[in-house]
UniProtKB/TrEMBL annotation:
Annotated GO MF terms: adenosylmethionine-8-amino-7-oxononanoate transaminase activity; pyridoxal phosphate binding
Name of this chain's protein: Aspartate aminotransferase family protein
Similarity annotation: Belongs to the class-III pyridoxal-phosphate-dependent aminotransferase family.
Cofactor (UniProt): pyridoxal 5'-phosphate
Pfam families tied to this protein: Aminotran_3
Organism phylogeny: Bacteria, Pseudomonadati, Pseudomonadota, Alphaproteobacteria, Hyphomicrobiales
Keywords: Aminotransferase, Pyridoxal phosphate, Transferase
GO terms classed as biological process: biotin biosynthetic process
Protein's organism: Lichenibacterium ramalinae
InterPro entries: Aminotrans_3, Aminotrans_3_PPA_site, PyrdxlP-dep_Trfase, PyrdxlP-dep_Trfase_major, PyrdxlP-dep_Trfase_small
Alphabetical list of Gene3D superfamilies matching this protein: Aspartate Aminotransferase, domain 1, Type I PLP-dependent aspartate aminotransferase-like (Major domain)
């Protein structure tokens, strides 16, 4: 493909400053663990694209499935019509989901999945005659995409402050991370339960009869890899049960093997009422998202007392044939190569390699869980985020490594196919880089 001369003329990558034009990081190809630049330089993908290409890039079975599907059936409406692969994907997701979560709503992204789940929560309460339950509870530092629902329950100030009053009736739990108390927060069950008890306070304040749902990422990804303190998710579940509140896990990042299991719910032993998924469901190859729920919720939403309440929800591209074909192939690769098991087996190797970077200049803290890592860098006093930006840019240019940054935190989420040797290479590249940052 031709590269345009003026890189800002019609589009810009999402970057907080205008540096892309001066400093383009262009990608033209990918295979397995690597991206390739226009010059053919191989760059190791330390971020699985955007936490999505879990099976690695351009895997043959996935490519072949998409090609075959494109030649056979390009599009089928999910309104009044069906195509076989949509039913297969739903059944495969139901088999992977924990507990009795077995009915699927299809969307096309994580943001749509979240909006779908929030709508389901409120409508479900309406059709079961509890229509006053409309309040939603998110969490500080939660990321749930960029739809109005997602930024309302989300807890990132800069993502929400310019967008008016957002959804009414939303509260936020406190986030669960404190660097100073990290050993304490991740280690002590009482502490996790104590933090989750804040939900009881919010519920009491508004009365449980007004609260529809609580939504959290089991592991907050985009705001810096914050695993749940022990006992936290369990206590959220118990409080939701006590008050008849639906618990939604946003597993857009944590789903499909990222934490060594199909869903983080399994890892943490807590079954929510809904799971939002996206990203890894197709290994990033075609957009797809969705929500998996249990049958009573599904039935209430889809068939709830007709003529009493009319419901409408669904997308033109829900269960798109190309996405379904990609998903079936990706799920096959995960299963055939036991990639969730591989992620579990690599977790200690990964943790040791990345924690080995402790003590390097400017490294304040390191967290790892599953095949995820965050490295917090000290901010430059005059330019918050500049140090991580330098790390990201130089990693790409000098170390042939793609990393992701948020603020002054580096996030690493390699494809699940990463080998032990490659884990060592990621750590070596980072060690060199971090030793020479400004
Ligand atoms: N929820 C979570 C937890 C996410 O991490 C993301 C994306 N990073 C989203 C929702 C939104 O997904 P999308 O960008 O596909 O809309």
């Amino acid at each position: 493909t031709e590269i345009p001369n003026d890189l800002e003329a019609f589009w810009m990558p999402f970057t907080p400053n205008r540096s892309f034009k001066k400093n383009p990081r262009m990608i033209t190809r990918a295979k397995d663990m690597f991206y390739y630049t226009p010059e053919g330089r191989a760059v190791m993908d330390g971020t699985a694209g955007l936490w999505c290409t879990n099976a690695g890039h351009n895997r043959e079975p996935i490519v072949a499935a998409i090609q075959a599907q494109a030649a056979e059936l390009d599009y089928a409406p999910a309104f009044q019509f069906g195509h076989p692969k949509a039913f297969s994907v739903a059944s495969r997701i139901a088999a992977l989901a924990p507990g009795d979560l077995d009915h699927v709503f299809f969307a096309n992204s994580g943001s749509e999945a979240v909006d779908t789940a929030l709508k389901i929560a409120i409508a479900y309460n309406n059709v079961r005659g509890q229509g006053t339950r409309t309040r939603l509870i998110g969490r500080e530092r939660g990321y749930h995409g960029v739809g109005f629902g997602g930024i309302s329950v989300g807890g990132i100030v800069s993502n929400r402050k310019q967008f008016g009053t957002l959804l009414a009736g939303v509260d936020h739990l406190p986030h669960t991370y404190s660097r100073e108390h990290q050993a304490f927060t991740v280690g002590e069950p009482e502490w996790g339960a104590h933090l989750a008890d804040e939900l009881e306070r919010i519920v009491t304040l508004h009365d449980a009869s007004t609260v529809a749902a609580v939504i959290v990422e089991p592991m907050a990804g985009s705001t810096g890899v914050l695993p749940p303190p022990k006992g936290y998710l369990q206590r959220l579940r118990a409080i939701c049960d006590k008050h008849g509140i639906l618990l939604i896990f946003d597993e857009v990042i944590s789903g499909f093997g990222r934490l060594g299991f199909a869903f983080a719910a399994e890892r943490y032993g807590v079954v929510p009422d809904m799971i939002c998924f996206a990203k890894g469901v197709t290994s990033g190859a075609v957009p797809m998202g969705g929500v998996v729920v249990r049958k009573p919720v599904y039935d209430a939403f889809m068939h709830g007392p007709e003529h009493v309440i009319e419901l409408f929800h669904g997308y033109t591209y829900s269960a798109h044939p190309l996405a379904c074909a990609a998903s079936l192939a990706a799920l096959d690769v995960y299963r055939d190569e036991d990639l969730f098991g591989h992620a579990r087996r690599m977790e200690p190797v990964w943790a040791e390699a990345i924690h080995g970077l402790r003590g390097l200049p400017n490294v304040l803290d390191i967290r790892t869980v599953g095949l995820v890592a965050a490295i917090d860098l000290a901010s430059r006093p005059d330019a918050v985020g500049a140090r991580a930006y330098e790390a990201m840019d130089r990693a790409f240019r000098e170390a042939d490594l793609m990393i992701r940054i948020t603020g002054d935190t580096i996030a690493l989420t390699p494809p699940l196919i990463i080998s032990e040797t490659q884990i060592g290479e990621v750590a070596d590249k980072l060690r060199k880089l971090l030793s020479t940052l400004h």
